[in-house]
Design brief:
Shape: elongated
Radius of gyration: 16 Å
Oligomer: single chain
Largest sheet: 4 strands, mixed
Order of helices and strands: EEEEEE
Structural class: mainly beta
Strand content: 35-45%
Number of helices: 0
Length: 64
Amino acid sequence: MPKNSPFLIDIGQGLSMMLGLPKISAWKTTTRPKKAKKGTLGFNSQTKNLEYFDGTSWYSASMS
């Protein structure tokens, strides 16, 4: 299996579940998603913070 491919577990009835680390989008403050949906999460490479959009405002959490 290639290094960065998802690992899928068969959970029956034609369904499977992916295991592994999710990929988090990255942006700079000026390039945040223009039409972000409520719950959007990403990493601001300019401020080095995780950011979360609640549908109205962006909130950040320091990585230090």
